[in-house]
């Protein structure tokens, strides 16, 4: 996967924050914490929650429809989330999707999608490998919580 040309973070310790639109649910918080931990294990990046008076590098939010970033969500199905490449740090999730941390065939696995979207925030493009976390598609009920060799190999030029 060629990621040359994408911007890169100028630092490796990044602060995170959840927008007020994120459900106040321990399972949701755990899903994002696990996704951050997975990328920490495969990269030089370290993540910590931003203090109340600190601007966060990465901001996670759940939104419906047109939410002001020029990339509106389409409701259930199709577009699950989108994130912006480094030095922007926004990671948005469609609030109209059926999210779960223990998905059945009618729900999307939040941790899998968060792991994928954080890859974009770190500078990775989509992978052609259908088994990779960074592959462009994921079906309801599918769990992809482990970074593959393809994901890790694609990350290496970023650091």
From TrEMBL:
GO terms for cellular component: extracellular matrix. Transmembrane segments: none annotated. CDD domains: ZnMc_MMP. Can bind about 5 Ca(2+) ions per subunit. Binds 2 Zn(2+) ions per subunit. Gene3D superfamilies: Collagenase (Catalytic Domain). Its cofactor is Ca(2+); Zn(2+). This is Peptidase metallopeptidase domain-containing protein. It comes from Hevea brasiliensis.
